[in-house]
Amino acid sequence: MKDIPNLFGSMVFNDAVMKARLPKEVYKALKKTMSQGTHLELDVANVVASAMKDWAVEKGATHFTHWFQPMTGTTAEKHDSFIEPDDGGQVIMAFSGKALVKGEPDASSFPSGGLRATFEARGYTVWDITSYAFIKDGTLYIPTAFCSYSGEALDMKTPLLRSMEAVDKQAIRILRLFGNTDAKRVMSSVGPEQEYFLIDKEMYLKRPDLIYTGRTLFGARPPKGQELEDHYFGCLKPRISAYMKELDEELWKLGAYAKTKHNEVSPAQHELAPIFSSANIATDHNQLTMELMKSIATKHDLACLLHEKPFAGVNGSGKHNNWSIATDTGINLLEPGDTPNENAQFLLFLVAVIKAVDEYQDLLRVSVASAGNDHRLGANEAPPAIVSIFLGEELTAIMEAIDAGTVYKDKGKEQMEIGVTVLPHFSKDTTDRNRTSPFAFTGNKFEFRMVGSSFSIAGPNIMLNTIVAESLRQFADILEKTKDFKGEVASIVKKTFHDHKRIVFNGNNYAEEWTVEAQKRGLSNLRTTIDALPEFISKKGIELFKKHGVYSEVEIHSRYEILLEAYCKTLHIEALTMIDMVKGIVIPASVDYQNDLAKLLQKKKACGGDYDVSLEENLLGKIAKLSSGLLKKLTTLENAVLESKGGESALAHATFYRDKIFAGMADLRTVVDEIETLVAKKYWSVPTYAEMLFSVN
Ligand code: ADP
Ligand code: MG
Fold this sequence. Notes:
- By secondary structure, the protein is α+β, with helices and mostly antiparallel strands.
- The chain folds into three domains: 4-154, Ubiquitin-like (UB roll), CATH 3.10.20; 163-220 and 229-410 and 427-551, Glutamine synthetase/guanido kinase, catalytic domain (Creatine Kinase, Chain A, domain 2, 2-Layer Sandwich), CATH 3.30.590.10; 567-693, Four Helix Bundle (Hemerythrin (Met), subunit A).
- It is 49% helix and 14% strand.
- It has 24 helices and 19 strands.
- The strands form four sheets. Strands 9, 10, 11, 12, 13, 14, 15, 18 and 19 form a nine-stranded mixed beta sheet that branches. Strands 1, 2, 5, 6, 7 and 8 form a six-stranded mixed beta sheet that branches.
- The longest helix is centred in the last third of the chain and has 54 residues, at 553-606.
- Bound molecules: adenosine-5'-diphosphate and magnesium ion.
- Adenosine-5'-diphosphate binds next to strand 9, strand 11 and strand 14.
């Protein structure tokens, strides 16, 4: 048995290591910078760097890297060794405070949406002191934020930290009004549940579409999919179990709280959930989780697929972003309290979220928009593209009673009046029944379920933090001026719920009637990435982000461009891959099969006599007919790809990709899948859906 408490965090330069290895004064100064964001003096940084290096070298590290999160959605790293020449022609291991605090990677090849061109080609990485450094594969990793020479954010981390500050600032204003004087900070906490697929590596390597695009671009439906519901929470196969065990241990070493693991709904689909932590650390750890999922899979002769929809016809993968806000003194502000005062405070924070989600539903949709997630949202398995909130029956009844000015009776005993009586606690059992909701209240947190499995969770949490900060700001502005605090809180809760209750929906989000009903309620239904993204640069969005110092206008525009560009590039690669596979795999297979059938047919006929040739004739006829359809659709797609060069706006370009390339691929796929069902297996050189989905035994 391994000593897990000792293993946990063993590769992290965490608080315990700092305390043990840093002089007292330096440790104190560092902690102050961490908790209050004060400036870190260079002499302090020098001592910290040297202690970090000694610790890392003892653990076998030879290099360090500034680890950052550019807008590719993944992470970036460039490794520098600790070696410095000494006078005698030898080397010593050295690491300066300057190298710890700031790096200057050549940033010109990262997406910047035109930002860097207007400024400088240089980018800076700056140590994110609130996220611990760690060792992975012999390198000391220093989590950093990445920005341009003039301070524009070029990454996901910087705006995330800014949004955390925004919600902190506004929530503290509210707490002070409620008489809370001891909380110094309010942090957003996140627990991201990560879904993923594992298939045998040998299968993976035979599918160029999986290698280049992360998803299968074609594949006939297997005889068995997820209909028996026998995979969800099913017993873990030994190979999967060994993989998960190693993944857990590696994550624990890095200080990530890997907690829950299980099989998911689709065959070959699994999930890992950590214990929640503050939003920036959860983001770092989720990036590490995705990286390790992939690299450890390779060691086990498996391939990990993080795409939102690797296989059609079975569930895709998402990330449930569990979100709450809590004080540094440990009070979860979305947890109903034990006193009337806490109860009023809870209701105020609750309606702040309801208002935020209703007013900025479009921005939440933007935060989960990508070519990959378009396959998932609204596809009858994941939440639809319509944003709504599940509150659960009990809480909805309470809110309705407040709205109607009536008294809520809980099991005939408890009465509800804001600020007067105690709210019932909402157990998970009563709140978590609806799995179809895109945004569900689950007792003491909200679960945002629209996030795609391959996403950085920074984006969705930037949105959540900022929109909730805005509601809280408006409330605080009113409450700071009022003479009747209690009365004003009650009236805000009532009015806010009344004005925004259209966003609350406890029913089945997959039902078609909901789409109609949502439209009646005036909720938006931004079906695709291209429908959603323009909301990002709307006046309302820009004002919001500017007001809270989360994004400048220039930063928003650059991100908008990057997202559109990524959409087009993704589809472009998919189209080229598909064309290549159809020409190099599908057509030859069908031609060879037809050839053999034709030869047999000829032979039979040459023999004279009365051989029955109906099978050959029938099959040949069917495949020949499909083949000519295939050629037509292939040509249409090829022409669309050639046409796509135009110098129009980014949005027009992306719209073309959705309407012509995406549609063209879907169209081509239907014929390919039909051909696959007719052509004998020995001609089909790529693994089938059945083989891939059931490849691990
Ligand atoms: P499930 O949704 O699968 O039933 P849980 O409700 O137990 O599972 O938790 C899901 C995730 O929510 C976990 O990552 C957990 O740590 C996280 N979580 C629990 N409480 C909070 C909270 N207050 N804030 C943010 N995340 C939380
Ligand atoms: Mg969940």
